[in-house]
Amino acid sequence: MLIGKRRGWEIAERLATPEALMLGRRAALGGALAGGAALAAAPAQAQWNLFGSNAASNAPPVVLKPLTAPRLDRYPAGRAISAEADATSYNNYYEFGLSKSVAGAARALPINPWSIEFTGMVEKPRTIGFDDLMKQVTLEERVYRHRCVETWAMTVPWTGFPLSKLVEIAKPTASAKYMVFTTLADPKTMPGLGQRFYPWPYTEGVTMAEAANELAFITVGMYGKTLPPQNGAPLRLTLPWKYGFKSAKSIVKVSFTDKRPVSFWEALQDSEYGFWANVNPTVPHPRWSQATETLLGNDDRVPTQIWNGYGEWVAGMYTGLTKERLFV
Amino acid sequence: MFLLNSVASLVKDRRGRFSPLRAVTLAILCAPMLQVMVLAAIGGLGGRPVMEATHKTGDWAVYFLLLSLGVTPLRAVLDWQRIVPLRRMIGVASACYAGVHFLIYCLDQHWHMLTVASEIALRFYLTVGFVTLLGLLALATTSTDRMIARLGRRWKKLHKLAYPLTVLALFHYFLQSKADVSAAVFVAGLFAWEMLWRVTPHAARLNWWPVPLLAFAAAVTTAAVEFAWYGLATRIDPMRVLSANLDLSYGPRPAVAILLAGLTLALIAGIRRRWRQRGGVAMA
Q1: DSSP state letters, A99-114
Q2: I need a surface site. Which of A3, A95, A282, B103 has the fewest CB within 10 A?
Q3: What residues make up the domain containing A26?
Q4: The total number of structural domains that make up chain A
Q5: Could you say which residues of chain A have pLDDT below 70?
Q6: From B185, which residue of chain A is nearest by alpha-carbon distance?
Q7: Contact at 8 Å (CB) between B155 and B62?
Q8: Residue B86: left (phi > 0), alpha (psi -120 to 50), or beta?
Q9: Can you give the CATH number for the domain in which A124 is found?
Q10: Which residue of B has its CA nearest to A96?
Q11: Which pLDDT belongs to residue B235?
Q12: pLDDT of residue A27
């Protein structure tokens, strides 16, 4: 007999909003929204920038291609999938601006053509085209919970392939201890780079053990389509047991090293954004509690789970690391 | 009915006549709240509407607090006596926004007041914010005619608290920011301008040149505050922030914006001065 024990973050199936209803409601709201759009756009763009330059780019709207892959049910999300409109409109992407409304500006992201450089401790440094890479992988869909360090969370169907596959393709040498990801830094299309005191380009890193973990994922699509620019097109990292900033977007370089990298946010404020950044409700951020999280779209507040609820698959990696600040 | 009467009395001057200036001010003070309410109703506040509303009301509490402290210098600089009675309305509005800001925070915590209390005790920026709120509410509740009469001389002393409360409000603003404190730095620059004006010798204020000079002094102070914050509170290299002030490609940075605002004010003051000298009519 199957006995399901409901964990803290799980809600009953009946409580989840049916997708059709959700989408229908959005359609109905669409009319009202269109009227308020001009009004809404301005405050949603609000950020430091008195005289603009945060306008949507002149680039044409991005056409997302369908990208279907079989869904893997091994890691149940246990809660309703977030509305696509929320997951694709509430984003941190500092290269395009400090506000959460960067989708317009991010349209300029030059994703065609795209290539990824393998460098550092690899058998042979080389650069691989994105399309070439896609031919070497098998795509699958995984619904993961995403927890931002800022206490918001969402649940997203990501399409991609295991990070371990990318490691296999990159061929690191045995001496590599860390895998480092670098985001594109293109001053022509990314106005945020004008804030030169930030340590551009955005870099993030994981240990080789973390890179080999079955949950670590390279994402190339969401909601059955290719990734929108603001979500990190054309490929990004997805580490569901860590705070969202660890999951670097729009990766152009993958390097292997034996020295622990200092990541973007760590360089800015190591007391608040450390190297490990594993989700833990009992370790508060210096400025706020991490005990609960707000779900995008409905402002529901639910308890946060240690390892974002993925301890079964990841906790074992950290058993010997008692001296490390694993949760900041 | 009570509400209508209150509004009616708010837009009348001391002699009981309708005052367009008071009406416009009241409309401006209410506009941000109405905007938040409309956006909330049409789903225009984004993925985290409650958080967005918290930020917006907090921003306006600070802006109006700064505006209330700007009345005295603006009266002198623009030679505009009639704005003085507006100060009370602006100050009370600031306290109201701070109160709503707090209530929306409670809403975000789903009214778990135990969580709210423990968060205020545990998170330094919330402690600072809450102390500021209590102070602002104390000032607002002692702003009725009756309280002013009752407190007499002590009223003025009590309301000097507006200065330290503004410092606390700004500190709260800085502390709650992520790595980028530009928005808070800009408001700190406005405060710097207002305080620098207050220490300008009375004799000098009669001339035209202190106003443009203040713009530069406030801009330098703004840059210094920003430099100090990044140097002390973050790992960002403050020298790079300082030099970024010379680069306008990403839009003017806070110190530059303060300079531009200060010079614009100087220009307006200059035009008014010329206008007066030619015997123009007093501004409404």
Answers
A1: SS--HHHHTT---SS-
A2: A3
A3: 13-318
A4: 1
A5: 1-57
A6: A48
A7: no
A8: alpha
A9: 3.90.420.10
A10: B250
A11: 87
A12: 42
